[in-house]
Amino acid sequence: MAQRVKMYLESLYNTKISEITKDDIQKIFDEITAKKHYVTANSILKLLSPIFNKAIEWRLIDKILFME
């Protein structure tokens, strides 16, 4: 599963966290669920959630952008 997670997140590797949008995450999630890889989709959300929460805490990103 780690390889699959890595593969799906590859498009974000060279993107600053402040430039990643909710739509970017939604696109990845939709791509994964379209293939019926629901466990992988949830694993990715579990992986990304604390990363983005910490970025909000450190004021690297604005929470409002992810709520829209």
UniProtKB/TrEMBL annotation:
Which keywords, in A-to-Z order, does the entry hold?
Answer: DNA-binding
The terms under GO molecular function for this entry are: DNA binding
Q: Which domain of life is it from?
A: Bacteria
InterPro entries, alphabetized? DNA_brk_join_enz, Integrase_recombinase_N
In its UniProt entry, what is this protein called? Putative integrase
